[in-house]
Design the sequence.
């Protein structure tokens, strides 16, 4: 055993001595023939590739690749024939090492098994005319055949490239591939025309532009990896399967193939997990990244992408997919938290059009996210044309109505109970949104909700509604609710109420149609009570939603509202009527009663007018009132005797007709201040009666003491009276009754200034029978010889009737 070791060591030492001798001999030979070898190497290579080759120095390197021997070439420069015109070196290296195979060297054969390039460049150039320096890689001569056998062609075992740029600049097709190789090691294993390359790389991408007009992929990114690729010389295909490459320290897996045969094409698929979208955007062209960047995804996604295209030119087909959970998504329209979705990107919407940003799309599937406390869902969201992006989105949500307050953001009302659902469709751009370039359609459904009106604290309960919105308008298809347990049905339209897609020209307005079996004005008016300050939004309440809320507040506080009201029964304080048809127009500080028609008993009432808000929570009413054949007693009761203590509803009967033009003040509750009434009225009472009317009974003190004044029927009483701040001026009026005839004129004062003349003609001396039918002679008649009485307020405020034998009333008048 010792002898074997001894002889083995001697043999190894001998080989080392022989190898060193060869190293020294080769070095001496190279140094002695350096100029010849440089000149010959340059000439031979130039003949082979058809270009110009220059080498500044040549030497044998022992220590750079020790224990291997290498030939070192310095400043190797390869130029094509048109270098003077375009100025691009095809190849340049500060140092190029050709490592020799030691086994072959022992057999006195030169065999290169590694090429090392340091500080160099390789530049493939094609000008706009189609000229390319790539012809330098096409050998000018075929290998020489000797004795029927091809000359041996050495295969390089290993290539190492350091600090070298690699550029493919195709001006004709607008392509630019430009990378800087920090380090690239390639080891080759060969088997039956199949090559297995073991690659270690660290490459900085400066440009990967398939079309310079649309920008570069992977710009500024560092690619690092240690992997294997295979090449089949039969298929002329370079392929790789799930190789690991990190891009800017994030891991990716690549699978794909490059085919160099008749059909020169490539197909690559890449996937990764937990990649931030900000990094993913850096892998795309700037224009594409900008289009995708309209949607800002804060968290990580799992993504994959495929690229297919021709090696001869043109943009590749790119399809990317991703999926994410519990992420944050911000868009120019809405911001979402806790969202999950999957998506797709493609740069080929129309196969017949060029692959570019204008022909690109982003699709989002199965979206679910939280927006202002509401969970929103969408089956599909599409963004087309990333040059000028247009989004189409269907979004749905179901929620409690109390949650919806954060969306409504209005000071005018709040939702206190019930559930809702929202379905919304938007199509338009992300920014510079106007009603002309975008459309917004949606439907809000409310079930068993409560709506509290803040200004009046009126509560609409049990609300069920279907509300649509179209661009800037809100359409109330139906809203059924109860106020003070009275059912109401509303429908209508709010014009220009939404600012979600920009403002529309024209003022904001609301038109409402209200129907109900019973409408109590005391309850209903509180819904439309206007005393709501239109507050300005705070700094953190900005954007289209805040503008919409401000518009709604402005509308309900001082906007234009038109109301059409139809009720089977209308109630106002004690007043009741049937078949009410009312039209009201409300503006900033007034109500315009355009029309109100009512049935009252066997008669009818119509009213027009307006209510103007004044200081001190009081309102001024100007109105025109027409009554036809209404029940006088009932009207007197319902309007609380019109503020006339002397004439109660218990004292009067008959059919009343009135044509009045009056103004007065009323308070917030709608109570009339009769002492402020001004105007005039033409009235008529037919088939009338005065029952236990105290002023007539007081007349009995002076005349006709034996007659019954407790129940007096009279002919039609008609006259024109005037109102002036609590005073009622009675023009000369004839009263012809079953008891007697008399003429009345003067002033009845609600403020204690009553002064009325009562003329009792002496023709009344003849007592009238039970069959007597009163007939008026006319208020313009003199009445003949008469007794004159005067009803006047005395010092204690009571109305006293006295004789007026000297007609002092008329003299004072």
Sequence:
């Amino acid at each position: 055993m010792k002898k074997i070791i001894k002889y083995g060591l001697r043999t190894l030492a001998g080989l080392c001595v022989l190898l060193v001798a060869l190293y020294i001999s080769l070095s001496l030979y190279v140094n002695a023939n350096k100029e010849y070898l440089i000149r010959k190497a340059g000439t031979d290579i130039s003949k082979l590739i058809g270009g110009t080759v220059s080498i500044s120095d040549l030497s044998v390197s022992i220590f750079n690749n020790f224990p291997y021997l290498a030939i070192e070439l310095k400043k190797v420069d390869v130029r094509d024939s048109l270098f003077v015109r375009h100025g691009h070196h095809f190849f340049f290296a500060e140092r190029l090492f050709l490592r020799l195979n030691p086994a072959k060297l022992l057999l006195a054969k030169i065999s290169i098994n590694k090429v090392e390039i340091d500080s160099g460049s390789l530049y493939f150039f094609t000008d706009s005319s189609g000229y390319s320096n790539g012809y330098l890689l096409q050998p000018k001569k075929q290998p020489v055949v000797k004795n029927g056998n091809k000359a041996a062609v050495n295969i390089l075992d290993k290539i190492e490239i350091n600090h070298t740029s690699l550029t493919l600049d195709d001006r004709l097709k607008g392509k630019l591939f430009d990378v800087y190789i920090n380090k690239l090691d390639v080891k080759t294993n060969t088997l039956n025309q199949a090559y297995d390359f073991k690659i270690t790389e660290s490459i900085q991408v400066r440009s990967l532009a398939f079309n310079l007009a649309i920008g570069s992929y992977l710009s500024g990114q560092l690619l690092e990896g240690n992997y294997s690729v295979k090449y089949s010389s039969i298929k002329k295909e370079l392929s790789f399967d799930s190789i690991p490459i990190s891009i800017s320290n994030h891991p990716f897996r690549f699978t794909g193939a490059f085919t160099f045969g008749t059909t020169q094409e490539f197909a690559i698929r890449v996937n990764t997990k937990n990649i931030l979208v900000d990094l993913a955007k850096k892998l795309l062209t700037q224009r594409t990244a900008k289009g995708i960047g309209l949607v800002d995804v804060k968290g990580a996604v799992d993504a994959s992408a495929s690229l297919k295209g021709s090696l001869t030119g043109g943009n590749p087909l790119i399809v990317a997919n991703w999926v994410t959970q519990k992420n944050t998504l911000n868009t120019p329209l809405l911001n979402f938290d806790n969202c999950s979705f999957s998506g797709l990107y493609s740069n080929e919407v129309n196969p017949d059009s060029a692959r570019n940003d204008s022909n690109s799309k982003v699709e989002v599937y199965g979206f679910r996210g939280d927006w202002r406390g509401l969970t929103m869902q969408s089956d599909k969201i599409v963004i087309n044309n990333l040059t000028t992006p247009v989004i189409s989105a269907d979004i749905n949500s179901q929620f409690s109505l109390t949650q919806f307050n954060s969306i409504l953001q209005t000071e005018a009302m709040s939702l206190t109970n019930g559930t809702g659902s929202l379905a919304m469709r938007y199509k338009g751009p992300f920014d510079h949104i106007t009603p002309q370039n975008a459309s917004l359609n949606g439907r809000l459904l409310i079930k068993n909700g409560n709506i509290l009106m803040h200004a009046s604290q009126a509560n609409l309960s049990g609300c069920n509604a279907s509300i649509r919105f179209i661009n800037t308008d809100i359409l109330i298809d139906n809203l059924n609710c109860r106020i003070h347990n009275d059912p109401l049905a509303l429908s209508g339209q709010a014009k220009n109420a939404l600012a979600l897609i920009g403002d529309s020209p024209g003022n904001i307005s609301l038109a409402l149609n209200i129907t109900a079996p019973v409408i109590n004005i005391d309850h209903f008016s509180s819904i439309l009570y206007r005393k709501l300050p239109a507050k300005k939004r705070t700094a953190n309440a900005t954007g289209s939603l805040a503008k919409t809320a401000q518009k709604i507040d402005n509308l309900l506080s001082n906007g234009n509202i038109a109301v059409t009201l139809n009720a089977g029964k209308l109630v106002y304080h004690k007043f009741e009527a049937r078949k009410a048809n009312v039209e009201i127009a409300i503006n900033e500080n007034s109500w315009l009663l355009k029309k109100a028609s009512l049935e009252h008993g066997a008669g009818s009432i119509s009213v027009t007018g307006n209510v103007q808000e004044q200081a001190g929570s009081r309102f001024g009413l100007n109105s025109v009132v027409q009554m036809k054949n209404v029940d006088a007693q009932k009207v007197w009761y319902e309007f609380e005797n019109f503020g006339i203590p002397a004439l109660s509803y218990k004292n009067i009967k008959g059919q009343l007709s009135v044509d009045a033009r009056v103004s007065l003040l009323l308070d917030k509750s709608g109570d009339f201040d009769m002492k402020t009434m001004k105007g005039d009225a033409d009235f008529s009472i037919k088939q009338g009666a005065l029952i236990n009317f105290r002023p007539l009974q007081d007349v009995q003190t002076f005349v006709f003491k034996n007659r019954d004044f407790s129940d007096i029927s009279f002919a039609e009483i008609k006259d024109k009276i005037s109102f002036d701040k609590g005073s009622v001026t009675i023009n000369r009026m004839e009263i012809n009754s079953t008891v007697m005839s008399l003429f009345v004129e003067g002033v009845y004062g609600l403020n204690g200034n009553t002064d009325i003349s009562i003329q009792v003609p002496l023709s009344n001396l003849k007592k009238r029978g039970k069959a007597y039918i009163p007939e008026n002679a006319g208020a313009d008649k003199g009445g003949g010889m008469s007794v004159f009485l005067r009803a006047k307020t005395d010092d204690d405020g009571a109305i006293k009737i006295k004789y007026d034998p000297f007609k002092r009333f008329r003299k004072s008048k």
User: Anything to note?
Assistant: The radius of gyration is 52 Å. Confidence is low (pLDDT under 50) at residues 142-155, 532-543.
